[in-house]
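Cross-posting from the chemistry board since nobody answered there.

I work mostly on the small-molecule side, so proteins are not my area. We synthesized zinc ion and want a rough idea of how it might sit in this target. Sequence and SMILES are below. Is it possible to get a predicted 3D structure of the two together?
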Amino acid sequence: MGWLEVFVFLLGLVGGSFLNVVAWRIPRRESLVKPGSHCPECGHPLGSLELIPVAGFLWLRGRCRHCGARIPPRYPLLELATATLFLLLFWKFGPTGTALFYACLVLVLLATTCTDLMVRLIPNRILLAGLAAGLALLAVFRPESWLDAGIGLLVGGGLSLLAAEISRGGLGYGDVKLSGVIGFFLGWPNELAALFLAVLSGAAVGLGLVLAGVKTRKDYIPFGPFLALGALIGLFWGQALIHWYLSLVTG
Ligand SMILES: [Zn+2]
């Protein structure tokens, strides 16, 4: 690994650390900057050493230094996931505007996966912030993809809206909006691979949980994480998947 890769990985750790704050505070309508990071149990503010991504968690052995409350492993996991995905983006797209564009998508996917799992919400504010940043980067670095992104947004949102109306609550409007944002970033037709994988993985895991007796058919199973999973696979391997599928169909 070169220095640039180390830098990208560290940037991802910091990005993931920020996402932890976003995922906790945005659904609670709290400010992102004030107050500074603190233990949710005792309110003790975190020192600068404790704020270092992953290393701070390991140093504290996963507990608050003051009250001993357990820090959820979600914190270092999200930081490592963000850093790993940033590195994958860098390897696939190099130091380009396209890598930045897709980094926005990665941040939106990780943040909404966390909020959907924690509080069953996909906040508009996260989607809109991601879309706004994406629009700006599209205008600067990928002006040739306007049409793909526009069609992607309409098809992604439209297909999911249809599914939400048919399923009557099986798919929420947060999922519909997230699907539109994914369509915007991946563009037509790459988003189709992402949507297909989301439905496939969601159905498989849902069925598995019901069969294993963990959930009943009436239980809520968040779909956001499956949309995110499908989008990530579509982002890195979408074109290869579509080619493979077309070669199957056309023989
Ligand atoms: Zn504490």
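Reply from a structural biologist on the board:
Welcome over. Reading the output above for you: The chain has nine helices and no strands. Residues 97-251 form one domain. Happy to explain the token format if needed.
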